[in-house]
Amino acid sequence: MPSPWVQRFSTLTSAGDTALDLACGGGRNGRWLRAHGLIVTFLDRDVSALADLSNVEVIEVDLETGGPFPLKGRTFDCVVVTNYLWRDILDDICAAVTPGGLLIYETFGLGNESFGRPRNPDFLLKPGELAAAVKPAFRIIGYEHGLRTEPSDAVLQRLAAIKQ
Length: 164
Ligand SMILES: C[S@@+](CC[C@H](N)C(=O)[O-])C[C@H]1O[C@@H](n2cnc3c(N)ncnc32)[C@H](O)[C@@H]1O
Fold this sequence. Notes:
The protein is α/β, with parallel strands linked by helices. Helices cover about 15% and strands about 35% of the residues. The chain starts with a helix and ends with a strand.
Protein backbone atom coordinates (compact mmCIF):
# COMPACT_ATOMS: atom_id res chain seq x y z
CA MET A 1 0.00 0.00 0.00
CA PRO A 2 1.57 3.33 -0.99
CA SER A 3 1.85 6.09 1.57
CA PRO A 4 -1.34 8.19 1.69
CA TRP A 5 0.90 11.28 1.74
CA VAL A 6 2.54 10.16 -1.50
CA GLN A 7 -0.82 9.36 -3.04
CA ARG A 8 -2.16 12.78 -2.06
CA PHE A 9 0.66 14.85 -3.54
CA SER A 10 1.43 12.63 -6.52
CA THR A 11 -1.76 14.06 -8.03
CA LEU A 12 0.49 17.00 -8.92
CA THR A 13 2.56 14.82 -11.25
CA SER A 14 1.76 13.85 -14.83
CA ALA A 15 2.14 10.69 -16.86
CA GLY A 16 5.55 10.75 -18.49
CA ASP A 17 7.21 12.60 -15.60
CA THR A 18 10.37 11.09 -14.19
CA ALA A 19 10.43 9.98 -10.57
CA LEU A 20 12.93 8.63 -8.05
CA ASP A 21 11.87 6.34 -5.21
CA LEU A 22 14.89 6.62 -2.92
CA ALA A 23 15.48 3.89 -0.34
CA CYS A 24 12.47 2.29 -1.97
CA GLY A 25 12.41 -1.10 -0.22
CA GLY A 26 9.74 -3.09 -2.04
CA GLY A 27 8.96 0.01 -4.07
CA ARG A 28 5.37 0.51 -2.92
CA ASN A 29 5.48 4.23 -3.71
CA GLY A 30 7.39 3.94 -6.97
CA ARG A 31 5.07 1.18 -8.10
CA TRP A 32 2.13 3.49 -7.43
CA LEU A 33 3.73 6.27 -9.47
CA ARG A 34 4.60 3.85 -12.24
CA ALA A 35 1.01 2.64 -12.36
CA HIS A 36 0.08 6.27 -12.98
CA GLY A 37 2.40 6.56 -15.95
CA LEU A 38 5.55 7.98 -14.40
CA ILE A 39 8.99 6.77 -15.43
CA VAL A 40 10.37 5.60 -12.12
CA THR A 41 13.91 4.93 -10.94
CA PHE A 42 14.04 2.67 -7.89
CA LEU A 43 17.07 2.92 -5.58
CA ASP A 44 17.97 0.89 -2.53
CA ARG A 45 20.96 -0.94 -1.08
CA ASP A 46 18.90 -4.13 -1.29
CA VAL A 47 16.80 -4.44 -4.44
CA SER A 48 15.83 -8.07 -3.98
CA ALA A 49 12.17 -7.12 -3.46
CA LEU A 50 12.09 -5.55 -6.93
CA ALA A 51 12.95 -8.71 -8.86
CA ASP A 52 9.50 -8.81 -10.45
CA LEU A 53 9.95 -5.42 -12.12
CA SER A 54 11.04 -5.24 -15.74
CA ASN A 55 11.80 -2.37 -18.13
CA VAL A 56 12.59 -0.11 -15.23
CA GLU A 57 15.75 1.44 -13.80
CA VAL A 58 16.77 -0.18 -10.54
CA ILE A 59 19.90 1.08 -8.79
CA GLU A 60 21.46 -0.99 -6.02
CA VAL A 61 23.73 1.25 -4.00
CA ASP A 62 24.63 2.09 -0.42
CA LEU A 63 23.80 5.75 0.21
CA GLU A 64 25.72 5.95 3.47
CA THR A 65 29.32 5.31 2.43
CA GLY A 66 30.30 8.98 2.56
CA GLY A 67 31.17 8.83 -1.14
CA PRO A 68 29.64 11.03 -3.82
CA PHE A 69 25.88 10.85 -4.15
CA PRO A 70 25.27 8.14 -6.77
CA LEU A 71 22.81 10.26 -8.77
CA LYS A 72 24.84 13.47 -8.73
CA GLY A 73 23.99 15.55 -11.81
CA ARG A 74 20.68 13.77 -12.45
CA THR A 75 17.31 15.28 -11.68
CA PHE A 76 13.76 13.94 -11.49
CA ASP A 77 10.35 15.59 -11.76
CA CYS A 78 9.34 13.89 -8.52
CA VAL A 79 11.52 12.53 -5.72
CA VAL A 80 9.90 10.36 -3.05
CA VAL A 81 11.51 9.32 0.24
CA THR A 82 9.54 7.46 2.90
CA ASN A 83 10.67 5.85 6.14
CA TYR A 84 14.32 6.65 5.52
CA LEU A 85 16.62 9.31 6.92
CA TRP A 86 20.32 9.89 6.38
CA ARG A 87 20.94 13.55 7.04
CA ASP A 88 24.22 13.65 5.12
CA ILE A 89 22.36 13.34 1.81
CA LEU A 90 19.46 15.73 2.40
CA ASP A 91 21.10 18.38 0.19
CA ASP A 92 21.71 15.77 -2.52
CA ILE A 93 18.07 14.73 -2.37
CA CYS A 94 17.01 18.35 -2.83
CA ALA A 95 19.46 18.71 -5.73
CA ALA A 96 17.92 15.66 -7.41
CA VAL A 97 14.60 17.49 -7.92
CA THR A 98 14.17 19.24 -11.28
CA PRO A 99 13.29 22.95 -11.00
CA GLY A 100 9.50 23.02 -10.90
CA GLY A 101 9.52 19.43 -9.65
CA LEU A 102 8.12 17.89 -6.50
CA LEU A 103 9.72 16.47 -3.36
CA ILE A 104 7.53 14.18 -1.25
CA TYR A 105 9.14 13.12 2.04
CA GLU A 106 7.71 11.21 4.98
CA THR A 107 9.59 9.64 7.82
CA PHE A 108 9.59 9.26 11.58
CA GLY A 109 9.79 12.29 13.82
CA LEU A 110 10.82 13.03 17.39
CA GLY A 111 8.11 11.66 19.65
CA ASN A 112 8.05 8.34 17.84
CA GLU A 113 10.30 6.91 20.56
CA SER A 114 7.18 6.73 22.79
CA PHE A 115 5.50 4.33 20.37
CA GLY A 116 8.16 2.13 18.82
CA ARG A 117 11.13 2.03 16.52
CA PRO A 118 13.01 3.95 15.37
CA ARG A 119 13.86 5.46 18.76
CA ASN A 120 17.37 6.64 17.91
CA PRO A 121 17.30 10.43 17.37
CA ASP A 122 19.64 9.91 14.40
CA PHE A 123 16.61 8.54 12.58
CA LEU A 124 13.97 10.92 13.96
CA LEU A 125 13.33 14.32 12.43
CA LYS A 126 13.14 17.32 14.71
CA PRO A 127 10.01 19.48 14.34
CA GLY A 128 10.46 21.65 11.26
CA GLU A 129 13.65 19.92 10.20
CA LEU A 130 12.58 18.98 6.68
CA ALA A 131 11.06 22.40 6.09
CA ALA A 132 14.35 24.00 7.14
CA ALA A 133 16.33 21.61 4.94
CA VAL A 134 14.44 22.50 1.76
CA LYS A 135 14.32 26.28 2.25
CA PRO A 136 14.76 28.56 0.37
CA ALA A 137 14.95 26.51 -2.81
CA PHE A 138 11.50 24.96 -2.37
CA ARG A 139 7.96 26.25 -1.85
CA ILE A 140 6.37 24.09 0.83
CA ILE A 141 2.88 22.97 -0.11
CA GLY A 142 2.33 20.41 2.66
CA TYR A 143 3.88 19.86 6.10
CA GLU A 144 2.90 17.88 9.18
CA HIS A 145 4.66 16.60 12.30
CA GLY A 146 2.44 14.54 14.50
CA LEU A 147 0.78 11.33 15.52
CA ARG A 148 -0.47 8.90 12.91
CA THR A 149 -2.78 6.25 14.31
CA GLU A 150 -3.40 3.93 11.34
CA PRO A 151 -2.19 1.26 10.70
CA SER A 152 -0.28 1.77 13.97
CA ASP A 153 0.66 4.62 16.27
CA ALA A 154 3.73 6.50 15.06
CA VAL A 155 4.98 10.06 14.96
CA LEU A 156 5.69 11.13 11.40
CA GLN A 157 7.00 14.22 9.74
CA ARG A 158 5.69 14.77 6.22
CA LEU A 159 6.62 17.34 3.66
CA ALA A 160 5.65 18.11 0.10
CA ALA A 161 7.44 20.92 -1.68
CA ILE A 162 7.92 22.32 -5.17
CA LYS A 163 11.40 23.35 -6.26
CA GLN A 164 11.40 27.01 -7.29
C1 LIG B 1 11.95 1.19 6.39
S1 LIG B 1 12.45 0.79 4.75
C2 LIG B 1 11.43 1.90 3.79
C3 LIG B 1 11.19 1.39 2.40
C4 LIG B 1 10.24 2.25 1.55
N1 LIG B 1 10.73 3.59 1.37
C5 LIG B 1 8.86 2.27 2.18
O1 LIG B 1 8.50 3.24 2.84
O2 LIG B 1 8.16 1.26 2.02
C6 LIG B 1 14.04 1.56 4.66
C7 LIG B 1 14.76 1.26 3.36
O3 LIG B 1 15.97 1.99 3.33
C8 LIG B 1 16.95 1.17 2.76
N2 LIG B 1 18.26 1.60 3.19
C9 LIG B 1 18.70 1.60 4.48
N3 LIG B 1 19.97 2.00 4.52
C10 LIG B 1 20.34 2.25 3.23
C11 LIG B 1 21.54 2.68 2.63
N4 LIG B 1 22.61 2.90 3.36
N5 LIG B 1 21.57 2.85 1.30
C12 LIG B 1 20.47 2.62 0.55
N6 LIG B 1 19.29 2.19 1.07
C13 LIG B 1 19.24 2.01 2.39
C14 LIG B 1 16.62 -0.22 3.25
O4 LIG B 1 17.21 -1.23 2.45
C15 LIG B 1 15.11 -0.22 3.21
O5 LIG B 1 14.63 -0.71 1.99
